[in-house]
Structure formats: C-alpha cells, structure tokens
## 1
Amino acid sequence: MKRIVMAGITGRTGKAVANVLRRLDDCQIVAAVGKNSAGRDIGELLGGKSNFRYIYPDVPSALEKTDADVYIDFTAPDAAQKNAVSAAKHGLDIIIGTTGLTKESVECIAELLREENRFGIIASNFSIGIAAMVKMGNILREYYGGEELQIIEKHHTSKRDCPSGTALYLQQQLDLTEDAIIAKRVAEKASYHEIKFAAKNENLSVSYEVTGREVFGEGVAYILRNMPNSGVYYDFLSFIEHIEKRK
Ligand SMILES: NC(=O)C1=CN([C@@H]2O[C@H](COP(=O)(O)OP(=O)(O)OC[C@H]3O[C@@H](n4cnc5c(N)ncnc54)[C@H](O)[C@@H]3O)[C@@H](O)[C@H]2O)C=CC1
Ligand SMILES: O=C(O)C1=N[C@H](C(=O)O)C[C@H](O)C1
C-alpha cells in the first residue's frame, strides 16, 4: 500500500488526479498540503463522505500526523521546490507534475533524492499521449529536419506559465529553438499540443488534446504501480521505457 501526501489537491489537476487515485486499491491519500485550505477533510473535498484525512499547512505538519511514503505535487514552482525538498529530507519518494521550475530547482531536488537514495520523477506531462507524441515528433524530425517544425500549444487563460512545460519539453526533445513554440491562451482549453511541419506545398501535424484531466491521474497511477525503489526521472517517456523494458 502506497501512502500518499498530496499538494495542490484543491486545484484543477490535483483534484482530478486525486479522484483517480482514490479508486485504486493499492494506494491511499493519507494527507494533503494546502496554502489556504488547511483543516479541510479530503473525502468531503472530493465530493464524498468524510474520511478523516486532512489538509495541512505544510509538509512537516502533514508528516508529523501521518506515516506517508510518497509526495505528489501539482501546485506552483516555488511551493513545489520547497515542499519537495522537505519531503525528500523526510525520506519520501516524489512525483512532481508542477511546471515552471527552474533547471536549478529541478537539479536541487534530483540531487537530494539521489543522496537519500529515493525515487523521484519531475515531469511536465504524465499523459501517454505526449509520450507517444515525442516518438512521432522524432519521426517528423528525421524525415523533414527541424527547420520547418513548429510546436503549437493552447491552454486555459488561468495557466501561469507560458510556454507550457510540455511545449518546452517537446522543443528540447526535438532539438528545436524556443522560437519554434507558438503559445496561445484560450478560455476553456484544458491542454492542446501540436507538432507541425509546414512547408510551401505540404503540411503534416501530430496533435494531442486533453479534454479531461483524469488522464494525468492515470499516468500518476502507472508510476505508483511501477515505482522502483530509487532513481530520478525527468520525463514520463523515459520512465515508461525503463519500466516496459524490464517486463
Ligand atoms: N505534469 C503534468 O502531467 C501536469 C502538470 N500540470 C501542472 O500542475 C500545476 C498546477 O496546475 P493547475 O491544477 O491547473 O493549477 P491550479 O491553480 O488549479 O491549482 C494549483 C493548486 O496548488 C495550490 N497552491 C498554489 N500555491 C501553493 C503554495 N504556495 N503552497 C501550497 N499549495 C499551493 C493551490 O491552492 C491549488 O490547490 C501547473 O504547474 C501545471 O502546469 C497540470 C496538468 C498536468
Ligand atoms: O497547466 C496545465 O493545464 C497543464 N500544464 C502542463 C504543462 O505546462 O505542460 C501539462 C498540461 O499541458 C496541462
């Protein structure tokens, strides 16, 4: 049984992820961490009955009251960095989905996880769709080169970071410059990414749209089911490939 502490559970993504995880037999959200929601009951927050599991103001107080082994974060960059460091120092494994962390922040968390010999994944997208899209993008790159490839992303207008973590990830994976990214903020759009080859006489696109955030929860569930004892991963595709190779 994996015992989880989750930060960001009142947010758009955290709530959807928690709703997937609470249906699993082999894991339990034992506490949450929240900025303005300390004291709330997690079961009631997720639309069910009280489960006597609560939101705490910070990681140390959540860990004082519960015996957890995994920390999950869908919050904001500063909070993710601070909370992940605290959780790693307490010996927890870590799953960070929050985007917009600096390279230095990511490396600081990764270094700590290695020192503590814990598992961690810090990845901008936990959907299988984006993992598959990297592979398809690499085929486009192989056939057409990078010159005329664009990455188009569309997200809801409340999204804080721009471009999205996923667009930056795709750009790096395809070895393109940041100029290749076109980012749009559109009301109601959950998450849309496209890799587009556009030339004078031809267009070819691969696109992926998330219409329900539970897909990210399915990705997190896959990680929890297959989590090794240690090792740090920076993207979901590398994790999937590592796990599937061992099967
Ligand atoms: N890796 C992935 O697959 C995905 C990553 N994301 C990322 O997850 C993050 C959250 O996105 P949304 O759910 O749309 O945001 P949101 O604004 O709906 O929710 C953010 C949550 O974090 C909490 N929070 C904010 N600052 C905090 C702090 N200082 N301390 C504790 N809690 C704090 C808020 O109370 C809220 O519960 C973003 O960085 C987004 O890019 C989103 C979807 C998928
Ligand atoms: O904020 C979001 O909504 C999303 N954020 C992630 C990102 O920045 O790429 C993942 C997904 O696109 C949804």
## 2
Amino acid sequence: MAADDGFSAARLFSQGVSYTYDDVIFLPGFIDFPADAVDLSTRLSRRVPLSIPCVASPMDTVSEAAMAAAMASLGGVAVVHSNTEPRAQASIVRAAKSRRLPFVSSVPIFSPAPVSEYMRPAPRSASASFDFEQAAALLADEGLDYAPLVSEEGEVIDLITSKDVERIRSYPKLGKPSLGADGKFVVAASIGTREDDKRRLEQLIQAGANAIVIDSSQGNSTYQLDMIKYAKKTFPEVDLIGGNVVTIGQAQNLIAAGVDGLRVGMGSGSICTTQEVCAVGRGQATAVYKVASYAKDHNVPVIADGGISYSGHIVKALSLGASTVMMGSFLAGSHEAPGAYEYKDGHRVKKYRGMGSLEAMTKGSDARYLGDTLKLKVAQGVVGAVADKGSVLRFIPYTMQAVKQGFQDLGASSLQSAHDLLRAETLRLEVRTGAAQVEGGIHGLVSYEKKSF
Ligand SMILES: NC(=O)C1=CN([C@@H]2O[C@H](COP(=O)(O)OP(=O)(O)OC[C@H]3O[C@@H](n4cnc5c(N)ncnc54)[C@H](O)[C@@H]3O)[C@@H](O)[C@H]2O)C=CC1
Ligand SMILES: O=c1[nH]c(=O)c2[nH+]cn([C@@H]3O[C@H](COP(=O)(O)O)[C@@H](O)[C@H]3O)c2[nH]1
Ligand SMILES: [K+]
C-alpha cells in the first residue's frame, strides 16, 4: 500500500483526540496466506504464554472456577476475582487447577448424607489429571454413564457424565490448552493494595496461581507501587500484572517498579461509570496504542481491558499493540460465568455487575472502603444483565476464527507481524465519521436476523 494513503497510528493518535475502537478503521493490507495460518499465540505477561489472546476479567459475575477451567482449556486464561475471602478465592484457583477437563460440573458433590445412601458406587473413576479425550475414552470403553473425577490425594473432585461428553463434542475441537510448568491449567488471580492483600497474595500463590493481577481503576498510586515491590521481592517467580493505566506516565512508574504485564483501560468497560463520575480516563484505542508503544520497549505485554463487544474490537486492540484482550460483558452471559440464568422480558439473561457498583462493593470489596476515613460510598459501576450466549467453548473458537480473518485482511499472519506492521507504519488507519460508522454497520433494512455462526 502506498504510504501516503491513510494515517499511521503514530500520526493518528498524536492529535489530541481520545479515540475508541469504533472511531477508527484499518485499511486492508496484502494477503499471501490463508486465514487458518494466522497464529494467535501470545503472552499474558512476561513469562505466561497463551495460545489465544483472551483473558476473562477479575469480576464476580465473570471469573470463578468454571470460567478458569474453560478459558485455560481454550488456550486463554481467567483472572479469578477477589471479591471474596482469601481462602475462598484460593480454593477457586485450586479447583480450576485440579482438573484437565474444560468444565466444572454443577453437580453438587457435597452432601450431609453419606454419598452411598443416594448414589450407586461408581464402577470406575477417572483421574483428575485426565484431559477431555482420556476421560471420554474411559466412559466409552467401559460403557459408563458417568465417572467420578479423583485427585492424586484420592478425593472426589467432580463428575464427568456421558452428557458432558456429548455437549463438549458438539463444540469446535479444543485447541492447545494453557498449561503451566506444573502441567496444570494456567489460572491467574487478582488482589488489591491493602495490607490484608499480602495474606491473600500468599494464599493465592500457595494455591498455584500462575499470575497475579493488582486490581485497581488507577494503578499509578503509592499503594500499588508498594504492593509491586513487596510482591516482586517476596514471590519473584510469579508474574505480576499492574494497572489499570491509560497513559505512558502511569506505565513508566509501574514498569520501573517491576511489573511483568500491564492492564490498560479506564472507564471503557460496559458497566463503568468512572469517566462520568470522576472525569478521568481515556478513549480505549488511544490508551492501548499509547501504553503499548511504551511498554514494548520494556518487553512488557499489554492487556487491553474493557470495551470489547465483538471480534472487530479484538482485532483493533491487538493490532494497536495489545498482546491480549480482557473481557467482562463479552463472557458474562456464558454458561461458564457464575450465577444462574433468569428471564427478563422474555429473554434469558445472566446478571453482570461492575466491581465498583454499590452492590459489588457491599458484597466483599467493602473492606477497601470500610477502612477509609471517608466512608461515603460512591459507585463507579452499575448492575445489569447480559443475554445468554451459550458456552465459551463454542463462541470463543468462532470469535477467534473471525479475528484470524481480520488479521488476514490486514496482511498480518501473527500478533508479532501485526505489531511489526504497526511500528513500521505499514498499517494504515483512519477515523470514521458518524456517517461512516452508520455505513459500516447494518443499515437500510426493514428487518434482519443477525446470526454470526
Ligand atoms: N478499569 C476501570 O475503568 C475501572 C475498574 N474498576 C474496578 O472496580 C474495582 C474497584 O476499583 P477501585 O475503586 O479503583 O479499587 P482500589 O482498591 O484501587 O481503590 C479504592 C480506594 O481505596 C484506596 N486505597 C487503595 N489501597 C489503599 C491503601 N493501602 N491505603 C489507603 N487507601 C487505599 C484508593 O486510593 C481508592 O480511593 C476493581 O475491580 C476495578 O477493576 C472500577 C472503576 C474503573
Ligand atoms: O468503571 C468501572 N466500574 C466498575 O464497577 C467496574 N467493574 C469492572 N470494571 C472494568 O470493566 C472491565 C470490563 O469491561 P467490559 O464489560 O466492557 O468487558 C473490567 O475488566 C474492569 O476493568 C469497571 N469499571
Ligand atoms: K463506560
């Protein structure tokens, strides 16, 4: 492409305008490879590789054991939220890491009555270290309807049933899972910056957390810098992700303090009211581009956090320099998100709430606020609901296929290649006017059905 067509990102993002994903559009590049050849493997942080660039947000309506097992089995990762007691959070991490199956069943396995009173003895059990194919083969070979999943310590941790096998088989084939050096699923977890969080950190690391996210809307604080220094000194072997940041100045401080990854986004989340309440933040496209262009020189991967509604947003975030995207609302309506489905106006929905909503704050993150001299609580998020999306094991593979098609259109065969095109200014983009955005969407139809896959 002629270099004088469109704008380079460097030029576009230096004009004093805060842009978000929908404001910008990439100009197509040259295709000389099939979409299937696009390599989406990446890193969550310096030492945590992933095979897909997807991260589930540390929110109590998104990331618990079922999400963590499913995301790791897809090659991504979930960050287990901290809106609960440290012991409970650590046991969620343990539960996800104790298996190699892509799900945590909802069958209650704890009961006041001895199990033998209401269940037949299982003819065979499956080892908790079995992956899906091994467990499915056991059920098929032995003609079993179910088998308990038994840990190395002889504890029954779950059940696998022939129905689970049927369900998982109806989804796209599982790719390369995220496994740590211990051969177990990669699971991350979040902490805060209070004195108590040091104890939480210790318990999470004992539970085997592969990376720790320091969860704050404004990471550039003396509290976070102190926590980074403490964590890096006490547990140097575990990757530490700082944030959130949206400027180079914030990133500089956290990188200097030693973080292995950065989480970028302030006010961009679907449930966020931070920009409204505090007047601080940044358009997400600008934030990702600016922080990533600084962090790359320090070998610090960037997580583009918030504002992802569809695959095109993921392509934009990654092409603007992010190594992964972190998602809340995109994953919240899934089978794997915590909570039960409800019906609202005839739609099947799941609750999704901001961690800075009054409801979430009074549930657990309250400690943050109760300790403050100023005890007036002001929400920076809302409580809402999102539509049932089915299993992440189904819609994430389709979403990744769409992302590969986007990369192919750009002429980028991998994340590294997209980042190279960006830095070489071969990647060209423009701002879309309001009319161009309308044109880029579905328009002029009396009615339509949108079925993506
Ligand atoms: N990405 C985003 O745009 C936003 C995200 N959130 C989410 O909401 C949740 C809460 O975020 P925040 O309110 O930023 O939590 P936070 O824990 O970072 O801050 C809450 C308050 O506690 C203070 N604080 C923190 N550590 C302290 C210490 N050691 N001593 C004294 N004061 C201390 C902070 O300065 C702040 O006033 C998080 O899950 C966050 O991800 C909230 C707002 C915006
Ligand atoms: O202003 C905020 N108030 C909140 O209560 C809140 N809770 C979460 N978050 C942030 O939003 C991200 C998820 O955003 P999405 O739903 O758009 O994926 C998350 O990953 C967070 O960065 C919040 N931001
Ligand atoms: K918002």
## 3
Amino acid sequence: MSTGSLHVATGTTSVRGFGNDSRACYGFGNSGIRFLSTELRVHLVPKINWEPVASYPQVHLRLLRNGVIRSCRFKFHTTEASFVHSAYVDSIFSSLHGSTEDPGKISDESTLILIRHGESLWNEKNLFSGCVDVPLTNKGIEEAIEAGKRIRNLPIDIIYTSALIRAQMTAMLALTQHRCYKVPIIVHDESEESRTWSQIHSENTKKQSIPVVKAWQLNERRYGELQGFNKQETAERYGKEQVHEWRRSYSTCPPNGESLEMTSRRAVAYFREHTNSESRTVTGIFLCVSLLGKHVMVAAHANSLRAIIMYLDNLTSQEVIDLELSNGVPMLYICKEGKIIRRGSPLGSTEAGVYAYTWDLALYRQKLDEVSL
Ligand SMILES: O=C(O)[C@H](O)COP(=O)(O)O
C-alpha cells in the first residue's frame, strides 16, 4: 500500500490520502483539513465498502465557510481538481455550515433519518392513495409530532420530502418538536423568479433555518387505476393474492401503475445522485450524508422508502416483500467511515427505541442540554 496525495491549488494546502496507486485516495479528510477556497470540484468515482456504488463524473464538494471539510469517507480516484462556484448549492447549503456552529460539532459521523408520513385521510379510509395528494388526519398530525419528539435530539442539516402534502406536513410538524429550534424552510428553485423571490437576505437568519427540498422522485409509487379504490374491496374483487402481489411484489405493476422496481428507479436514483437543473451540479441525499457529512432527514412514503431501504440494507427482491413501514415511525441510519448502517428500530415507540446513541449523538444531545439550561 502506498501513500497518495491530492494537491489542491491553494498554494499551501494539500489533501492526503492512502491508496494502492497514486490516483487513489481514501479514508482521508476527517475533520480539520483546511482549504483556502470555499468550494472544490473534484472529478471522482467513489467506492463504498470497496464496491463501486456509482460513477460520479463531476461531484462538487462544498467546503464549509470557514474552509473546513469535516469528512470525506469515500475511496475515490481523482482525475482533476478545480474551483467552482454555484449559487444554487450556496443557497441550499449556506445554512448547513450552521451545523458546525451548532451544539455539538460532529466530527466523523453523519445521520440519515427516514420517516414515512403520518396517517392520511385516505389511509384512514383504507383507500389506495399513490400519487393522489391527500393531507394528514388528526391522528397523522399526532404521529408526526410524536415522530418529532423521538428525533428531537438528533442533528438535522437538511430535509428532503416528496412533492406530496402528507410528507411535507409530517416533516414540518416533526420539526416543531426539535430542540435546535431552527425553522424548516421550503426551497423554491422551480424558476429564477421563485429563487429570487424566496431569497433570505440575512445570513444570521439563514443559519437558523433548515432547507427543505421537495422532490417528486420521492413520491409514493403510482398506484394507477387502483388509486381511490378501497383496499379491502379491491381484494374481494380481484382476490387477496392478486392484491398482495400488486402491493408488495418487487416487479409486478398494479394496472397502469408503477411496480416497486419502477418506483425504485426514480427514488433510489434521486437518493443516490441527481443533477440540479440550474447549477448543473451533481448532488444527492447519499452524497450529502456520505461525502459532505451532513445530517439528513427524508420524509416520504411507504413504497419510495421501501425502495430506499432495500438499497441501503441490501435487501433482495424477495426480502423486500416483507418490509412494512408504519406511519410516522422514524428510522435512523448512521454513516461512519463510508458505511451507512441502520441504527434504529422501525418498531421503536420511544426515543430510545428509535436509536441507540453513538458517542457523537450523545455529545450533540449533551450540548443541546447545555444550551437549554
Ligand atoms: O399509496 C397508498 O395507498 C399507501 O400509502 C401505501 O399503500 P400500500 O401499503 O398498499 O403500498
């Protein structure tokens, strides 16, 4: 094994890595590496757990404002490094640097929280919802608040939700319980105008906000011609087995709807990487957690989350059949040393049941306690 280093054009700074050849850098970049520029573009191909997860021809590593990159846990091959600037990335992530100033600077561990929305009015009526945009019931509102209580001591830098109101309500209600008292703010980047109109001009206020990114790719699977029909009545009409197959199999599509496999193609693709239309930057929830070391919450749906969990937990198409997600129950994953591993039980009905504390999370909580004294 030889030592490799990536020299960044700041004159005084270099990033060191250890690799098998001169181009490979991995396991480098834990807290404290300083750069003189605010952003670095690296063309890289990351590998997690020694397996290639995807090809990222261009990935932007946004450095924190004070020039500290907290963690880079990917093994990757560098071919080029250059400095870039992206207004979009800046607008989304400028508030993220708040996490280092937040109680409990977390050094080498990041968190991913997945929450299925609380009960919707159509869940209550046992109707196939799919992409129909239905709000929460009172019970769903309570479930979202309860979910918020369970994750109130976990750090959150950015929130992703689907484009559907039940997921957005869940995210917003959950955040009302968080002890960081930051304000979740929906990012409007649909057009130049919406970006300009929704700009926050105070840096200080920005630091007190959490960006909420809406993505249709995280929507519930399209249930096609079943949408609006009662699940029980549909089972009586077409047979229990057929309906179970439509609802739980990996590759069977409900009539004119999406299979889990199709849902997975858009949801997992978005989760792993997507290109921002304005800045042309490649980003993604996975990258955000793994590469940038951000603490991310995703509020979405039974089937978009089943697809993401299947990906994260490496489940087979057979195993995913038995994966059931309850409304409003947060699941916690921890990213450490390039691995994202499940930490919390989906059945946990208390904060302690949702996750077991790691050292860094305990520290974050302790700092929250100190601030609120
Ligand atoms: O879309 C729906 O009806 C539900 O949110 C998920 O339904 P399922 O449990 O039938 O997949």
## 4
Amino acid sequence: MLSLPFIASTPQNIKRPKVIVPFAPRTLDEARAAGEWAARARKAGADAMEWRVDALADSVDLLDADGPAAQALEEAQLAIQDQRELPVLITVRTAAEGGQADLDDAAYAKVVSGLIRRTQLTPPLGTQPRIAVDVEVDREPAAQLCKQAGELGVPVVASHHDFDRTPDTRILLAKIRDMLLMGADAAKIAVMPKEPSDVSRLLEACASAVEVAEVPVIAISMGPLGRSTRVFGGDFGSAATFATLGDEPTAPGQIPVEKLRSVWTELY
Ligand SMILES: O=C1C[C@@](O)(C(=O)O)C[C@@H](O)[C@@H]1O
C-alpha cells in the first residue's frame, strides 16, 4: 500500500478522522493565494487540504496540460509546501458528480492524467508523496488512471458521489470493492440521505467495508441530515472528513473546521 499521510490509517486515531479542508479558487488570482490559504487552514486545525481544480473550469481551459491552470497548480503546490507541507488532495470533480468540470470521459482522462504526471514531479526529490489525486470510479478511464498513478507513485483517493440519493447497501459496497480492485489507496463515498435510515445504512456500510478493506475508507452522508457522519464518522471507521475554512462549502452539510475540532476536543 502506498503511504497516504493525510488519511488516518491506524485504529488508534480512527475516532478523530483526518480533517481535509477544500480550497476551491475560481480564478487564477484566487489560486495564487494558495500558500497563504494553506497556512490559515493549518492553523485552524486542517490535516490536509483538497484543491478543487474543477472550480477553475469557468475561467481557464483545464484541458491545456501546460496552460495557466496547470502552471498555477504547480506554483501553488510549491507555495503550499512552504507552509510546512500541508498535504494536498487534488480533485477534478466532474459535473456528473456535482462538480464544475463538464468533461466527457476522454477529457477527464486527459486532465487527470496530466495532473498525475505533474503531481509526480512536484515533491522535492527524496521526500514522501504529500499529494494524492482523486479519481472518480464511475468514469470509464478510472482503472487506467489508478494504474498510471500507481506506476508513478502518486496515491489515489477513489471516489463516488450521489447527490440525489443513498444507493442500496449492495451498490455502496460494490463501489468500494471496485475502488479496491482498481488499486486505489483510499476509497471514498459521499451520498445524499432522504431519511434517517439512509444515514445509518451508510455508516453500517462503512463499518463493514472497513473490516475487509486494506486501505482507508471515507464515508459521508451529505446535507443537514447527514451531518453526524461528518462529526462521528470516525466511530464507524471513516478515515477522514471534509470541513470548511469559512469559505463556501464544496458539498452540503460541511461544517467549519474549528467547530469540528472543538466538538472532538470536548468528546474524545
Ligand atoms: O469527495 C469529496 C467529499 C465532499 O463531497 C463532501 O461531501 O464533503 C466534498 C468534496 O470537495 C470532496 O471532493
């Protein structure tokens, strides 16, 4: 298994999942503030940041592998590394899964593959990878992207989102199994509950996946109804949770990182 420093992987700290705070700049100017933003995130208690590259989709061409978005990302990663290396999860969330990047499978493969290649070049020689890449398991090139990342030593957090419903438990577990078969270094599911039993079912699926998976599992129930999973998901084996840094949430139900920390400090 590849090391994935921003994901809790030992039973001792599982109750306090790692906190990943999304950074979603919409313009290159906003992206240039990444180093500063990372410093604030670290101070507020983030264990890692997620760079939502898809948020740039309206202002730059994500498909241009050597274009401004890729260069901004590289500059920003260097700036972030100066901030005592807050680990980064790089995500291109497609419109099909609630993101801003309206890409077909071929375009998704091109953008993510380009990021994997650049990511591999970014950490200074001889240091551990501190950067992982999100791969949506439902995109046709997912397996090929996981393979490429594995060959280049870039950890993959495979993901599946459903903003409309919580699929059957059988489907949730099959998604996680697909992620593991593709060689992902972590498996993440974020789904929308319609009723309380959807939330408990998601947590149950998480707990049973954790028993067999050899990599960290992240399970999130979104929206106000699913908020408990963002706070107490660790009790069911979920290895990480996403929280805001005073910015707009990147998914419904996210809570501020400071609030999350203070609840945990009181309870655990
Ligand atoms: O996969 C996830 C989880 C998430 O959707 C959430 O529900 O917090 C937020 C996204 O930014 C991230 O890529």
